[in-house]
TrEMBL record:
UniProt GO MF annotations: heme binding; iron ion binding; oxidoreductase activity, acting on paired donors, with incorporation or reduction of molecular oxygen; steroid hydroxylase activity
Positions of heme binding: 205
Keyword RNA-binding: no
PANTHER family: CYTOCHROME P450 FAMILY 3, FATTY-ACID PEROXYGENASE
Assigned protein family: Belongs to the cytochrome P450 family.
Protein name: Cytochrome P450
Keyword set, alphabetical order: Heme, Iron, Metal-binding, Monooxygenase, Oxidoreductase
Coiled coil: none
Cofactor(s) the protein requires to work: heme
Length: 260
């Protein structure tokens, strides 16, 4: 956060400004005291302005929310693919087919990876089986007393959904066994709240598209050249724990160079 303060200071020099998210936030920020609606009803409050503390806090949140999550998701992808060679092979076929039709392409970009439907389903299936965000991350506060499926929810109650119960619910995700990796199950339209890896509603993950593109580009590059292979240490060292995110301790895989 100190570093962000320094960068903000630097940006006050017009020559050091850039076209990026931080600059957009700085343009929306004000050093004036911003009054909250609850402060004093008689005084005017400045609407739609960020405080400098909010800018710093948002940059910090982006770093925390953006890096560990995406790298952990990639780690789970390698774990699952090592265990499911057939599905990994299908993914490689999709990647190879794209490059055989587009020989001039050397590296995948945004458009390329968005034309790989099996890849999209495979990543979602990895995140269904291995959600990353802890339950408190997707909690919601009830603002008005309500009843859901006969259960009364009082105003102010904090609802903390158990992601595993939802993601492994056979009724929501069947008929294929929910304990198995089956990307094709995502071809079926599911309940809108059945997949909560990125949260739901207007406050869901703002970085979802970026994260998916990052993961797709990396997997495309990796699987174009290598096959992920299981090792003896894979299961014994996995040890999934809850830290900042739900994370494996170690993932031991082997990369075998593919015959081109
Ligand atoms: C696989 C990667 C990721 C996963 C699984 C993930 C998951 C989540 C989840 C579950 C939430 C809570 C949503 C809710 O309450 O409904 C969230 C919020 C958020 N995520 Fe992500 N995220 C990922 C990547 C990213 C990236 C790359 C960024 C930024 C570059 C990011 C930025 C954020 C921010 C700023 C929020 C708070 C949104 C708000 O409160 O309005 N996330 N994320």
């Amino acid at each position: 956060m100190e570093r962000v303060d320094e960068v903000i200071e630097m940006r006050s020099d017009a020559a050091k400004q850039r076209a990026d998210l931080l600059q957009l936030m700085l343009e929306a920020a004000s050093r004036e005291h911003i009054k909250d609606k609850n402060d004093d009803v008689d005084e005017q409050y400045i609407a739609k302005k960020l405080t400098y503390d909010e800018v710093v806090a948002n940059v910090f949140l982006f770093m925390v929310a953006g890096y560990e999550t995406t790298s952990t998701a990639l780690a789970y992808c390698t774990y699952v693919l090592a265990n499911y060679p057939e599905e990994q092979h299908k993914l490689q076929e999709e990647i190879d087919e794209y490059f055989s039709q587009n020989e001039n392409e050397t590296d995948p970009d945004y458009d390329v990876v968005n034309r790989m439907p099996y890849m999209d389903m495979a990543i979602k299936e990895v995140l269904r089986m291995h959600p990353i965000a802890l339950s408190p991350v997707i909690n919601r506060e009830c603002t008005q007393e309500t009843e859901v499926c006969g259960i009364k929810i009082t105003k102010g109650a904090i609802i903390q959904p158990d992601v595993y119960s939802i993601h492994f619910d056979q009724e929501l995700w069947g008929p294929q066994d929910v304990n198995g990796f089956c990307p094709e199950r995502h071809l079926t339209k599911r309940h809108p709240l059945a997949f909560t890896a990125f949260g739901v509603g207007p406050r869901n993950c703002v970085g979802m598209r970026l994260a998916l593109v990052e993961i797709k580009i990396l997997l495309t590059r990796l699987l174009k050249q290598y096959t992920i292979v299981k090792t003896d240490k894979l299961e014994e060292n996995l040890n999934i724990t809850e830290l900042t995110v739900i994370t494996p301790s170690e993932i031991y895989i082997k990369l075998e160079k593919r015959q081109q």
